Amino acid sequence: MADEVKGEDAFLEEIGPIPYKPDAKPNETMVFKHYNPDELVHGKRMEDWLRFSVCYWHTFRGVGADPFGQPTINRSWEDGTNSVENAKQRLRIAFRFMNLLGIKFWTFHDRDIAPEGATLEETNRNLDELTDLALNLQKEYGIKLLWATCNLFSAAKFANGAASNPDAHVVAYAGAQVKKGLEIAKKLGAENFVFWGGREGYHSILNTQISTELRNMANFFKMVVAYKEKIGFTGQLLIEPKPKEPSKHQYDYDAMTVIGFLKTYELDKHFKLNIEPNHTTLAGHGYEHDVVLASEFDMLGSIDANTGSPDLGWDTDQFPMDVKSCTLIMLAVIKKGGLNPGGLNFDAKVRRESTTVRDMFIAHIGAMDTMARGLKGAIKIIQDGYFEDCLKKRYSSFSSGIGAKISGGTASLEELEDYIKKNGEPTLQTGQQEHYESMLNAYI
What we know:
By secondary structure, this protein is an alpha/beta fold. The protein is built from 17 helices and twelve strands. The protein has an eight-stranded parallel β-barrel, surrounded by four helices. Strands 1-2 form a two-stranded antiparallel ribbon. Helix 7 packs parallel to helix 8 (210-231) and helix 12 (323-336) packs across helix 13. The two termini are 42 Å apart. The model is unreliable at 1-7 (pLDDT under 50).
């Protein structure tokens, strides 16, 4: 093990910036074959369309543990302690890693970067010390904070939730933690701030007052908005949907559920959504569903670029390596005009069997290449216009006559009845699903 660790450390020291090599052989996995940050595509640099981000928790805090197995990953820069000094060493390594990949953004939970102390005051001092270093590293490497978030789900105190907890004492602690989170987000120039309600939900309806918990959670978010405005933090607030796990049912089930919650409590002007497609599939939807839906309602803020294994049925947080899925995601992003101030955050982890630093690099490189291929395919789809032409034809009946009145909201049921009496039964129109699927395959 000692030799292996030493070799990993030497590997990180010796590697240079990852090159772009479009003619690379399939077994050359430490090069970009498709991602060229400066390439101009559809009016923007590729880097500006994709806005990649490294997530700190999986990449630098993940140890390969799962519910059935012990940790498998031992990084050479870890000294086995939870000290502030070890946290600083880890942070320096992280920025070197991001710099070698050419990634310009990062994300973190508050408890990822700084050890928790015996009191809130000690914990906040640790955060101040680590974020002082992070601010210097951001300036040194030219890397920005895509978003920050608070871990309101791991600690035992949050076993029954945070903002929706039945104990007001716990809700108060969550508020104090978020207050500090917003302050350090402003300090580091975060472009967004994310809320993931990991335990905002229930395991049994028998001991749950749903209306009370939802109301308290909404009031919590209103406090967040008030403090954000008070301190002058200009980042976008985001909520990340997930249907289940760890709770049996979570209040942020999917994109439509979150949008409905935000509109019900008049928070939709202040929040958008951070969509993780792996969570979308856990909700029983297609991979791209929540991204497309949020975009259609102008509520898409950012994307956690990962995937899962639907056959397993749990949150596996794999790197996105499927070109078709990434093409559909990027199609929605392009139609939206881009994700700024959001991005594509690799909320993904190497498999517990992939234990080396080289695996960390290859995972990010492969995912960046896959998203780049998806971007190029999506642009070609838009430029060719075949899909758009087919869709215009399919919905053409709403451009005039009774269809235009239905679409414009001016029709009445009496008018619809009169129309049927004059025109008779409608004829069945083909949906041409196989035609659309065959066209898509031409771009993959």
